[in-house]
Amino acid sequence: MPLIHLRGENMIDNGIKRVLLVSNSTLYGSSYLDHAESEIRDFLGNVGRVLFVPYALYDRDAYASTARERYRAMGYDMESVHEASDPRRAVNEAEAIFIGGGNTFRLLKSLYDFDLLDSVRLRVEGGMPYIGSSAGSNVAGPTIRTTKDMPIVQPPSFDALGLVSFQISPHYLDPDPNSMHMGETQEQRILQFLEENDTTVFGLREGAMVRVERGSTVLKGSSGARIFRKGYAPAETLPGENLNQFISPNTPEVRQMEEITATELKQRLDGGEDLQIIDVREPDEYEIARLENSKLIPLGQIVNRMDEIDPARETVVHCQGGKRSAKAIEALQRAGFAGRLVNLKGGITAWSDEVDPSVPKY
Length: 362
Prior knowledge:
The chain contains twelve helices and 16 strands. The chain is α/β, with parallel strands linked by helices and about 350 residues long. It has two domains: about 20-245, 3-Layer(aba) Sandwich (Rossmann fold); about 260-355, 3-Layer(aba) Sandwich (Oxidized Rhodanese, domain 1). Strands 3-2-4-5-1-8-9 form a seven-stranded mixed beta sheet. The chain has a five-stranded parallel beta sheet with strand order 12-16-15-13-14. The longest helix has 14 residues, at about 60-75. It is elongated.
């Protein structure tokens, strides 16, 4: 029988556990769970019936009705644990479980009130698929200490399910340099958490998901995540990256980044050097302006399409101003890309300024 330690950084993954943690239930411009549907379908596979946990919202009947209708549209039957005469039995007999978002404190208190923590934990450790969204993702970690929610109720403890060894901070918002708000940013609050705790924190932007199965922790969805670890600078990650390196004891650091100016790049190209140019902007930007013979691989796809980049050739990566291309290089290095990667300093804007003014600026 596999050894299982239920909480903390030293928790042992038995390789059976399957967990999908979604940052948010609704993404701007779409309806409830639309952005996560393909990942949920792939994750659940042949599961026929899902048990829903609606405890994070006050009106459990209405919440269960919404979730049931959405899962039915995806082809799954759904029961809600709050309708069961014996909630623990419902968990023990479930094929899969989905814990929805809302207030994390209310959710965790209810899981304690109905004595469900151990039941859920043991079923998931035994292989039952677990899907959490927002608050449901928060409670999958060792504690709920990195939630953004207001403590409207008081659970007996902040200790949560401990299905994963890292903390989740959903709905992660990057600091806005133009904001006049003088309060703490989400990053500052996470860094304060790390002043008192050692546990890695995944700041999941809206649209991001983390999928754990077969011993791997992979970032999914349409947006990246910011990873916070004690003693390390925060790291940017992209969809498709394996995040195990951030929760293992010996985390490899990315190599020092090389840069090239637009003028230097032009000189080397004119000299006939065989350079591979990768553009990590979006397709609409590529239509506005592009470098000759460049290949478009948007930043969010760079890890999943890494095999399209020839590691035997020196690769110059560029975006509009140099920041996205730097993120792309870091992600490729963490993913194990062995070739030489060079960042175009100032991006295509610098090319327009230094080399070819006919290239449109935007």
